[in-house]
């Protein structure tokens, strides 16, 4: 009721908010329509992640890009383990080769006994699933072997994304102000434009 009441007593042409806020507002569109209240234009504001020079240096040393740190933890770890591993954990070529072999069996079944096609497809799924299982086991083994590297990478991601969520949802502005002083405000004014709709990484 609050957003509806808000727009009735003080209508907005446009509502600017973060990703979470806009996701919430999108759920209200039908509600506004049914009550014949004008729904405002929604505009995603830009956001910022602040990192220290020390953190930036650590990321570079660990070969972690700005895109990497935004990944979900599971995806992040898997991606980095594959990158730093001294063996190839990607079984895609083997799976493609297997599919090519079964393609020939499919053609053979089509020409001889089509009832045999179901058995061929079932065997193909079984073989592909077996390779995927082996790939996961190999990745798990490499995670264990590279535990120290994984720990350092997840530590820096935790620093920048406390509780695996956005920095702005966990750290109060006053904490950053105490750390960086008045220069923080000047840097934010210089680097932020609410209407750009992007996500900046700022090193201070």
Quickly count the helices: 11
Mean pLDDT across all amino acids: 85
Oligomeric state of this protein: single chain
For the biggest sheet, the summary is: 2 strands, parallel
Beta-strand content estimate: 5-15%
- Give the terminus-to-terminus CA distance: 41 Å
Instruction: Give the beta-strand count.
Output: 4
Radius of gyration (CA) equals: 26 Å
Short synopsis of the structure:
The chain has 204 residues and is mainly alpha-helical. Helix content is 62%, strand content 9%.
Structural summary, described in words:
The two termini are 41 Å apart. The chain is mostly helical and 204 residues long. The strands form 2 sheets. The protein has a two-stranded parallel sheet with strand order 1-2. The protein has a two-stranded parallel ribbon with strand order 3-4. Helix content is 62%, strand content 9%. The chain has helices spanning 2-9, 19-26, 29-34, 53-61, 66-69, 73-84, 92-111, 117-145, 147-160, 173-180, 183-191; strands spanning 14-17, 41-44, 47-51, 199-203. The chain is flat.
List the helices and strands and how they pair.
Layout: H1 2-9, E1 14-17, H2 19-26, H3 29-34, E2 41-44, E3 47-51, H4 53-61, H5 66-69, H6 73-84, H7 92-111, H8 117-145, H9 147-160, H10 173-180, H11 183-191, E4 199-203
Parallel strand pairs: 1-2, 3-4
Helix pairs in contact: 7-8
What labels would you give this structure?
single chain; about 200 residues; mainly alpha; two-stranded parallel sheet; 11 helices; 4 strands
């Amino acid at each position: 009721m609050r957003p509806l009441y808000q727009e009735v007593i003080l209508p907005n042409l446009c509502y600017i908010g973060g990703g979470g806020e806009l996701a919430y507002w999108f759920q209200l569109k039908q509600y506004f329509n049914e009550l014949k209240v004008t729904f405002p234009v929604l505009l995603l504001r830009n956001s910022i992640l602040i990192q220290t020079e020390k953190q930036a240096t650590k990321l570079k040393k660990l070969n972690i890009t700005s895109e990497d740190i935004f990944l979900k933890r599971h995806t992040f770890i898997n991606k980095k383990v594959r990158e730093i591993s001294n063996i190839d954990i990607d079984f895609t070529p083997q799976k493609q080769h297997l599919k090519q072999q079964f393609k020939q069996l499919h053609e053979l079944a089509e020409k001889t006994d089509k009832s045999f096609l179901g058995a061929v497809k079932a065997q193909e799924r079984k073989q592909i699933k077996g390779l995927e299982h082996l790939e996961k086991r190999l990745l798990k083994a490499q995670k264990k072997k590279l535990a120290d590297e994984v720990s350092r990478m997840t530590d820096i991601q935790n620093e920048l994304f406390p509780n695996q969520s956005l920095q702005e949802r966990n750290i109060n502005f006053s904490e950053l102000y105490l750390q960086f002083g008045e220069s923080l405000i000047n840097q934010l004014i210089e680097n932020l434009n609410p209407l750009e709709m992007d996500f900046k990484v700022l090193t201070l």
